[in-house]
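Standup notes, protein team

Yesterday: finished cleaning the Vanessa tameamea set.
Today: WD repeat-containing protein 79 structure.
Blockers: none.

Input for WD repeat-containing protein 79:
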Amino acid sequence: MDIDADLALPNESEINQNDDTNIETNVATEAELYQYPKLFSSKTLLELCNSSWSRSYNAKNNIQPYLRGCKWSPDGTCCLTVVNNDGVHVTELPKDLYFGSVNPERKIDVLDSVIHVKEAGLVYDFCWYPGMNSNVPETCCWLTTRQNAPVQMWDAFDGSLRGSYRGFNAVDEMEPALSVTFNPEGTKIVAGYKKFLRTFDVDRPGRDFGEHKINSPASCLVTDRNLLAIGSWNTTISLFNMSESGNYKSIGKMHGHTGGVTHIKFTPDGLKLVSGARKDHRLLVWDIRYYRRPLNILSRVVDTNQRIYFDVSPCGKYLVTGGTDGVIKVWDIDSVNWSESVDVTEVSKDNATFRFPLHNDCCNSISIHPLRPILATGSGQYHFNDPVSALEDSVMDNDNVASLDKDVSINSDMKYSSNAENSLVFWWIGDLPNIT
């Protein structure tokens, strides 16, 4: 077939040159369109919004609605929060914070939940759909797993139940998953149980699942590309290679924590893993290529069995964690190279770049916004009532002070506090141009 000279196909060298030019143009265009903002550059946090929960007047003393985790949606439009004894809440980010900077004199917004799912029982774990986009309603959903219930998928627009994924044991009894997550593509659900990993197809709710036996309960899960890391209450972290068909091949185990592992997270480059445990004041940084010993050890305050979250910024430069003392700690890789080898002589030294005492109670929830310089923090924990103070109040009310046993004293190891703070707060962690 004859080809007109004006329509002649380019030769191979011209094709390669054009392809290289197009790739460079596309990369430059993407860089110009969006560049992740600098964080903590002003060394000051500005409160943007808050929301709080309190016990109703007629509720019993053991009903305490403290926060147990918060996570930004992948598109950054809303924040998912789990509140003890009050289910799951979805809180939207005010639209004036979508773009630009903020004025230091900006009024603090008091936020209300746009979605409230009143789930009964203790929520063990929750996660967003990884491809969530508010412009595509089908992708707007999250997963929860809770006490005496299957893994459930919820709609983020109206809070309705989309489907349930049930795991059954050898005697055909439904058992709850301890942890749950999606694979990176969002096509499968990986649920961790006491003795098994079970894989469900997102498109097939019900009891159809693949099963892989594990040696210890899966208290937390995280996936990255073809890797799956599993934290356990027996203080170990197991690393698996996932196949597209849902099969798992063991890579190895990591040992180093003194308490049960409660939260793990990959860094954005996928080469390192950060882990935290209960009643363990250390954050361990692992290189998954050489996982026999921790790469670095960071310190925080964790005095209870409660899960204390941490987060790594999408740019991979900052590691932020909460603590039972209410202090937020930040490690900047430019100031403290937290992702490199540890100096064993300074393991006990607190080398955090910044410390922000933001809460009067335990700060258990941390989540960095995926696109904006905004940090979400959640506070709260279970508070025990002091029996001696209650007895004194009862005696004083009866005007019978003499009947109080003066030998009754509080054990010095027992600490009772009524200083409860159950709040979700959004903080600006970017530049503040007009601050004085």
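Follow-up from PR in the comments: The chain is about 10% helix and 35% strand.
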